[in-house]
Records
---
Amino acid sequence: MKKRHITILSVGHMATDINQGALPAMLPFFIAAYDLSYTAAASIVFAVNMSSSVIQPLFGIAADRYTKPWLLPGGLMFAGLGLGLTGLVDGYQWIMVLGIMSGIGIAAYHPEAARLVNFAAGDRKSTAMSLFGVGGTIGFTIGPLIVSTAMLQWGLAGSLVLIIPVTIMSVVIISHFPLFEDLEKINNDNKNISTKKTIKENWNAFARIAIIVSGRSVVFFGLNIFIPIYWINVLGQSKMTGAIALSIFAGSGIIGNIFGGNLADRIGQKKVTLLGFLSLSVLLPLLIAVESVLPATLLLIPSGFMLFTTYSPTIVLGQKYLPGRVGLSSGVTLGLAVAIGGGAAPFIGKLADIYGVWMALASVAFLPIFLFLLSLTLPEPPTEMDNAAGTPKD
């Protein structure tokens, strides 16, 4: 496992996902400034994630066919500039436009970075992908704290702070272009050596893992959007406390992500995926059942831990089901499938407008039960020997 490559890509992932993590914490400020409904606020998340997720497979296909290292710094800058400038514009429509710009940047970074992580991972793909995921999780964790602190201090213009991390990492990645070009060359050489092998792709299994990732995304975005609002409007806490609750949820995923990746390399991706969704089937109904701040906060820790435990195993499963299309697989599992979560956001917001924030959270609390049952149907991924023989497992 090439640790230097993975570290740079993971820190870049952190800088990118600071923006995704910051967006839900910015919603209460936008709601107060523009008198937005919950549906309108959630639609900002919908716009950002749809612009990112729907086109991510296209960036993945391009990454599979052509070397595109410039997608990394280019994506970073679009992601940070888009969301960072939202505090300077006047009106809901401009926030939407800049949010879409940020989403396109996020779409450009993820497939190319995940593809390079796969190449650098060797035979420890789940561990490497978990480290990549940890970068994103840290970004989600510190994003709400960074932007909330800045916007409380400087008002909506505090959103400009989001431009700083992406600028730093863009410079770092550009200075390391030769490192990634060498990695690409090594991978191409390995492909040439194994051209006589028949790579069997399991599209049926990949479709199932895409549905599972989509369902997990609905759960994640439902919690990610409405945890701060729930803490403020239902539990009677401050905006900063709501942001802290969101960071606790995301922060617990750092350990869960590392745990899931290491465990998956030892016992298999499918088993870890089952463990994660089975645990969530119990934890999330408990979270919405409690009515006080302390037990709710404590339940955020194992909930975030187990949700993020499933991150790298599901992505690696997708890559193993389509071993010849790692960029496309990454684009779908990191992008298009995640669009379902963003796409569900306005509907969850509508539930909150009509029935209250509690109902919005309840709408996603029981979804892990279905995801657990669907995970039971997944085949074990093919090994290198299986691909050489051209025999899929299903």
Note: The chain has one domain: 3-389.
---
Amino acid sequence: MSEQKKSLLSLTLDELTEVAVGLGLPRFAGKQLCEWIYVRKAKSIDEMTNLSKAARELLKESYTIGASDPVDAMHSKDGTVKYLFRTREGHFVETVYIPDYGRDGRREEGEPRRATICVSSQVGCKMGCAFCMTGRQGFVAQLSAADILNQIYSLPERDTLTNIVFMGQGEPFDNLDAVLRATEILTASYAYAWSPKRITVSSVGLAKGLVRFLEESRCNLAISLHHPIPRERAAMMPAERGMGIQEVVNVLRQYDFCRQTTDDYEEGTKQRRLTFEYILFGGLNDGKEHADALLRLLKPLDCRVNLIRFHTIPDSPFHATNEEALQRFADYLNAHGLTTTIRASRGQDIYAACGLLSTKKQEEEIFS
């Protein structure tokens, strides 16, 4: 059965060469496989016409590309598209495509100026953050590296992409083997050849994954902070009880980062970028005392802060801070030397914005 076949998507050049040799094919067939998958983006082994028909039939006995098109799509009025993918194990995961057509937001003819894909690393999530729909869903399954890459490989707009963020469903450091393999393929010269500075991996800050990611990856890092006071952060984010935010900062102090974000950022520095994500909740973490605590916490780091509007979820005790308080908070941090931006909300009308992704309904319908 096709479900039992091994996926070629996510294999390295060396591994594809081993596949070829193991089937009795010449070693150069590994490079041919690599080109068909990562350069030509083949959807089936039958497309690999520079392999003999006999070789293709032999390959199909044990392997499949491992790519599958999205099973559903929701389109936002702002151009954002939320895709639903089915995994190789039959679960569901959401992926968000976010085009940027410029400051005025108008869609011009041709491709967007920038385009970001927000990929998922798990079905559901174990972290249990109180303000997140994915956290409410709970953990369902790990995604394989092939499942992660398929969100990019089978994206209809894949050729317009300029940035990749691991900020969808799941905690990337809780599935770090698959995430690191996916980013290895994305940045390898024989595969996608992306600059690691165009890829950002987000985490609440897990002890078992933070140091390993910093040592084994050159991609940018975003830490989901959301509250600078440990005791109060723990009430919102159970992960604080495992590796506290002060401990996260202490680890990060041992590494070099750069907050440079100009157009020559990719060529102009060897360091990766460090960002802290901070959702503002009215009356909970948006006061001057919180801004001051944030300044003290992050003072040792060369980093940026992204302020995010809270998007209400059903039966939530939280509510968004008002726009005036949001801007005041940003201005205060910037005035005190902490580079801060306000992230534009995208796709809220299709539940594609930060914290709104969930496949609980689809999972219940299939597996109940």
Note: The longest strand covers residues 92-100.
---
Amino acid sequence: MQENRAVIRLDRIRANAQYFLSRAHGAKLCAVVKADAYGHGAPAVAQALAGTAGSFAVALVEEGAQLRHAGIAEDILVLCPPLSEEDVVRGARHRLIFTVADASDYALLARTCERYGLCVSCHIKVNTGMNRFGFDGDGFSRFLAGALSGCVRVEGIYSHFYRPENAEVTGQQFELFQTYCAAAERAFGSLVRHIAATGGALASPEYCLDMVRIGIGLYGYLPAGFSLPAGEIRPALSVFSTVACAREYRGGGAGYGGYRPKGKDLCVVRAGYADGFFRGQAEGNSLCMDARVAEAKYRKYDEICIFSDADAYARRHGTISYEALVNVGRRAVKEYVNGESGG
């Protein structure tokens, strides 16, 4: 077929999730399935993790709604704060948990809920050093001292390590986070506390608290600065493409530009940058929008694996595994398997 085939090993995702649960020291697992589960397909991944993950995290309200339509009943935390009344109404309809990262986020939730007769839940995001989303100290104190709405239930508090591999920086962040947690729990009572994503969960059992948010680790990869013995977690995604043409080099280039092949055997693989692959360091400009001219000897119609190791691919292209994973399955037909079948 013309489409590429993305084979996703659900058994590996489940095994990876179990591994991180074993490292969580009693904390619950929040499976991060934003960006279509890092390119693996959020509905299928979430369904596969039913009974293992206690909750899920997405970036956008629309992603949460997609999970509800797929039958996911567990809590779903939306990591990006709402930006409009439409976000709030849609999120409330699908029983999503919102992020409140400053006083205006809370005001938007309260105002919308009061206008439409809604009640919603939220987790508070505090800034401990990443400076992306989150209350800062003075603003948080003013928020806690202000009027609060009975329509908005505060159920959790969280932050994010920006250098989990650095023990000193992470320790300072964690100490600050505990200060925020103490102030919040004086105002709201007991809350679900979470700061550790994949790196944080590996950095120290102390950081696991009530819940760990595992994203990249579910899919078989680790943040920079961390390593595990081979086989502890395993990649779940491979992408296959079809050889659309096999030929001998007859002079000229190989794709756009002035690159000259070193040998005579060429093939054209039906995968290009419109499929999410990167031009960056391909030889010459051999990667085109919908195809790549490669120096290899294959037969026409052969199916070949063109992606199976996001770390190695990212190193070749000067990026990170996260960016590779969310791109390379674009325009691919997803095939879910348990075990070695399917490629």
Note: The chain is about 30% helix and 20% strand.
